[in-house]
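queue> holo job accepted (norvaline)
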Amino acid sequence: MPRHFLRDDDLTPAEQKEVLALALDLTDDRFARRPYAGPRTVAVLFDKSSTRTRVSFATGIAELGGNPLVIESRASQLGRGESIADTTRVLTSMASTIVWRTFGQKRIEEMAAHATVPVVNALTDQFHPCQILADLLTIAQQRGGLADGDAALAGRSLAYLGDGANNMAHSYLLGGATAGMDVRIASPASHRPDDAVLADARAIAQCTGGSVTITDDPAAAVDGVDAVLTDTWVSMGQEGEDGRDEQTFARFQVTDELMAASGDGVFLHCLPAYRGKEVTASVIDGPRSVVWQEAENRLHAQKALLTWLMDHPDENTAVHALPRKEVR
Ligand code: CP
Ligand code: NVA
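queue> job finished
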């Protein structure tokens, strides 16, 4: 059975460290590893728009010696209703890894169930775990937690402000807790994280020494943190939904005042950003913003993840200490 990366907690704390350490190595020497030499093909499918994910996977797979095959689902038979199972059988007979950006988490779980090669989540409605690997790498680089090539994140803190129920919030909870971090989510009560994800994050934090705080007070959330983060108030597929307006989220906009309240925290945003909505231009374009380093780190973190998955071909996927509940 191959290892898949469908959620942030598909890597144990020790494994996440290995991936981040490898990402640090690959940042220094981009062409050090060639797991797809041949070249072997990696299929990268998109059911939704993308700039960073598309470019970083295509570039990274090529740098790993492979052939990136980027497929717009709309232009494939998957987009005309061919089943996930049949599509997966065909892809796994030719490709060495499948990367997919799609809608519901169940869709990528179904693909993984039929795949004989690793399946990687390039964003679903519920999680964006590749982004969190890049963000953890960025925080480690910024906060000096790089002792002996180790992305030493335990005890560091992050505060995410805005839509607490979206894929980024969920992945910060799971990925941050896995890293042993103090994870704080500040959101309106109407947009809190999914209960099942929250329970999983708390259980992971208990094992790693991390912690999880959910609040509707942005100033309290950012107090003394290493990193302040936000994301769009309207994720892909949520356009036109009620309650996604400034009235709901304005208090959670990342401003210079909130950055000052954090102390000396850096600012991250997965991008694309909407200046004047979730963040002011003065913050995202200001001296404490590390968003371009964060975007470049998608390349290094994903190359490390793909290399690590290819290095662990025969392992059971059931690494979770916890039984998973349904995620909304
Ligand atoms: N952050 C991120 O995933 O960007 P894209 O949607 O451009 O891939
Ligand atoms: N929450 C955003 C992330 C984009 C990278 C979305 O899903 O649209």
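queue> Confidence is low (pLDDT under 50) at residues 317-322.
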